[in-house]
Amino acid sequence: MIGYLKGVISHIFVNSCFIDVHGVGYRTYAPASTLDTLCVGQEAMLYTYMSVREDAIVLYGFATQDEYDLFMLLIGVNGVGPKVALGILSAGTADSFRLAVHQKDIKGLTKMPGIGKKTAERIVLELQDKIGPVASEDAGAADLGGSAAPGLSGILAETLAALTSLGYSEQEVLPVAESHLAGCTTVEQLLKETLKALGSGR
Q1: Is this model's pTM higher than 0.70 or not?
Q2: Where is this region: Domain III (predicted)?
């Protein structure tokens, strides 16, 4: 198995890239978070997983060990193949996915591509004790990604970005998050309180 590829990015597509390793171009499928870090003409290293089927051999690549580890956990869940796992990682951030699993947010998980209710329930059941904690603001809240509304900053902006990546609308979550902001000092706290309030209101 190929553990990683290190070479120059020659092409970037919607869900994959070509990485030139000593004159050989490897098509590597990657989540949006990884593709966003790549630049054509620059060297990169991607942690890789090789999927071998009767009709195809496919490489999946990840910019960080964390993304790779989550991918490996996901494909270990019954009903989640590499394509679905890649779609899940592309739909949000590693921490927004972790939070959804820790909060047992079945509805949020089913908004991710290829995930039905039964699969979402299996993901929660099998991964909630394996995926690790959600990073606090100090531990790298900027990695939560997403696009917060203009004019917002700090933990409120990061919380809004994480929730919108789970499928919530900005109009739905912003007032709720703002109402809990005073009692929270980290993104993780505000996310939990906001999700709790959103859940009780439905």
Answers
A1: no
A2: 150-202
